[in-house]
């Protein structure tokens, strides 16, 4: 049975009525023609679907980003890419199955691909650690990126994680240091790097493979310094205020594009990527190829400079000094780093 989110219930009810009408004995009777009534309901379903998905709230988009049927990184590796060969281990401690890395083909181009992978069921979630990578995962990612840089292969990073694993073991093996090293080293790679947030983009766990020349985001994905539930627990002392936190955090694709934190939104099929995974996969492929084509036209030193300037510009804003009523408005101050 198709899993429905809370805001999709009106659509599910109409769909149920349509199925009941089609199964009704009178629908196949020679005496009564119910085709017109069926067409009316189908039209209402289409209109309702467009109305629901045209004006989703931030929290509703977070729910779509977490949809259990949404394509995961391994799904894209089978469809968007071809000839994927996975490499394992960080050569220091272990192999982290929450972070997948290897080499593949994207169209005619050979690339390195790195991504965070969740599980479909309890057993796979345990194997993949619910998509939350350990320090060895980020060290494995860096190993593959250095190999790609050595052989002149572009790097594609697919982000879908609620965040890096926050457990004691990860702290003992220096999770913060592993992410920090990735941030530094990714700045220095000469090959093109394109990152795409395909689901959840949570905190440093996402940023650890997100330092790229181009940062793309799928229409119903989100990218945030903290999860809405975590923000709600801190600011409102109540995790049920997650919807309010999601709105305040400005974490949706449209918000991030307006803030200049992502470079392009990758459109999804109506209703989310899970409703038509093949179309979502081909759309992702088209956008990745487009940006790689643009980045390969510039030199390695220019790519490093562009990537550095891109991230140095994050967090700059203009302050407006408040003025008493009746007085001329004060001039805006110089940009301030936030």
What can you tell me about this protein's structure?
The protein has 338 residues and is an alpha/beta fold. The chain folds into 2 domains: 10-55, no CATH class; 63-314, Alpha-Beta Complex (2-enoyl-CoA Hydratase, Chain A, domain 1), CATH 3.90.226. It has 14 helices and 10 strands. The strands form 2 sheets. Strands 1, 2, 3, 4, 5, 6, 7 and 8 form an 8-stranded mixed β-sheet that branches. Helix 9 links the parallel strand 5 (193-202) and strand 6 (214-218). Helix 10 (228-235) crosses helix 11 (242-249). It starts with 8 loop residues before the first helix and ends with a strand. 38% of the residues are buried. The model has no long low-confidence stretch (mean pLDDT 88).
The CATH superfamily name of the largest domain is 2-enoyl-CoA Hydratase, Chain A, domain 1
Radius of gyration: 23 Å
Overall 3D shape: globular
- Look at the structure and give the mean pLDDT: 88
Estimate nothing, just give the exact number of structural domains.
Answer: 2
Strand content of the residues, in percent? Answer: 15-25%
Q: Uncertain runs with pLDDT below 50, 5 residues or more?
A: none
Q: State the order of secondary-structure elements, H for helix, E for strand.
A: HHHHEEEHHEHHEHEEHHHEHHEE
SS field, number of helical segments: 14
What's the gist of this structure?
By secondary structure, the protein is α/β, with parallel strands linked by helices. The chain contains 14 helices and 10 strands. A hairpin with a 2-residue loop joins strand 2 (99-106) and strand 3 (109-116).
């Amino acid at each position: 049975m198709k899993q429905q989110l809370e805001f999709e219930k009106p659509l599910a009810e109409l769909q149920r009525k349509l199925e009941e009408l089609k199964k009704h004995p009178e629908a196949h009777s020679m005496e009564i023609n119910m085709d017109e009534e069926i067409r009316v309901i189908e039209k209402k379903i289409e209109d309702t679907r467009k109305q629901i998905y045209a004006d989703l709230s931030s929290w509703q988009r977070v729910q779509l980003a977490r949809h259990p049927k949404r394509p995961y990184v391994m799904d894209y590796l089978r469809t968007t890419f071809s000839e994927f060969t996975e490499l394992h281990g960080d050569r220091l401690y272990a192999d982290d199955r929450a972070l997948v890395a290897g080499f593949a083909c994207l169209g005619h181009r050979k690339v390195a691909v790195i991504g965070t992978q969740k599980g479909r069921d309890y057993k796979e979630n345990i194997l993949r650690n619910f998509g939350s990578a350990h320090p060895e995962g980020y060290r494995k990612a860096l190993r593959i990126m250095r190999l790609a840089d050595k052989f002149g292969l572009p790097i594609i990073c697919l982000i879908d994680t609620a965040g890096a694993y926050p457990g004691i073991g990860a702290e003992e093996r220096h999770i913060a240091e592993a992410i920090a090293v990735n941030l530094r080293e990714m700045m220095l790679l000469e090959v093109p790097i394109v990152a795409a947030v395909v689901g959840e983009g949570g905190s440093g766990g996402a940023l650890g493979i997100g330092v790229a020349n181009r940062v793309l985001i799928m229409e119903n994905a989100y990218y945030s310094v903290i999860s809405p539930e975590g923000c709600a627990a801190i600011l409102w002392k109540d995790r049920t205020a997650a919807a309010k936190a999601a709105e305040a955090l400005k974490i949706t694709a449209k918000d991030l594009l307006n803030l200049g934190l992502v470079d392009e939104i990758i459109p999804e099929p109506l209703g989310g990527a899970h409703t038509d995974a093949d179309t979502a996969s081909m759309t992702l492929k088209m956008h990745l190829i487009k940006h790689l084509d643009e980045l390969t036209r510039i030199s390695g030193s220019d790519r490093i400079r562009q990537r550095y300037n891109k991230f140095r510009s994050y967090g700059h804003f203009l302050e407006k000094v408040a003025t008493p009523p009746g007085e001329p408005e004060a001039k805006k101050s110089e940009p301030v780093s936030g």
